[in-house]
Amino acid sequence: MVDSETIHTLLAEKAAGVERMRQRQLRVHARLAEFVEHNPDAMAQGLAKVRSQLARPLCAAREIYMEWEKILLTQPASAVANLLRDTSSSTEQLRSCAPFCLS
Looking at the record's lineage, which domain of life comes first (predicted)? Predict the structure, then answer.
């Protein structure tokens, strides 16, 4: 039988792992934001990736990529960078499907 202290320890370790993952995601998205701001081709490359995802017959994240397409067609790079740096839960899905690759 597992005692309560062991359970608390396991839960604390899991919470610490989740927090490390969140911090890593923040760093990755901050680097992507810098990339978008400093690379003039990033927006076009992102739009090409979005459109390639939307062309797939079974695109699981279709709504998210449709939102990215709208953003990339209507927003400047600075607004996209701000979105990538945003830590709110309302942008979490968008950030998780960010269509940029660091070169």
Answer: Bacteria
Secondary element (H or E) of residue 30: helix 4-38
Contact 72, 43 (CB under 8 A): yes
Whether 84 contacts 32, CB under 8 Å: yes
Secondary-structure percent of the chain, ordered helix, strand, coil, rounded to 5: 75, 0, 25
Tokens at 31, concatenated: 């680097």
Q: Concatenated DSSP letters for 22-82?
A: HHHHHHHHHHHHHHHHH-TTHHHHHHHHHHHHHHSTT-TTHHHHHHHHHHHHHS-HHHHHH
User: What is the per-residue pLDDT across 31-57, written as a single tens digit (0 to 9) for each?
Assistant: 999 999 999 899 999 999 999 999 999
Best CA proximity match to 33, nearest among 94, 70, 59: 94
